[in-house]
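note to self: dont lose this again. the chain is below, predicted strucutre after it. 122 aa total, dont forget to put it in the shared folder this time
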Amino acid sequence: MLKVNNVVLPTPADVDYEDNKIWSENTGRLDNGYFVGDLVCIKRKYVVTFPPLTPAQLFKVRTAFAAQFGSVEITDIGDDDNNSSTETVTLNAYFGDVKVKAYSWNKNIKYAVDCTVSIIER
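---
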């Protein structure tokens, strides 16, 4: 399940889940190679790949991710703390570029394939 600003989007074919560590400004390597810094927080990132899309579905996806920021509801894989294999999470996010390939422009049959976008917790 994927909603952006209350717009239901096509069900993703694939979602990569990432926990991105955000480090303090003073993070880096010392002269001896030792790593220093403070972990500020961990933010979620979802790389969503859609199944083949019609032009109308692609328009809906592009429109949803054109905003600077948005409210996102997405099915997450869950965690052991609440003994759930999946859960719906809501987060405020910003978005990467929508990347897509055109397929089958033959006989007016048009599909967009491998459409991907990153959703990054704000």
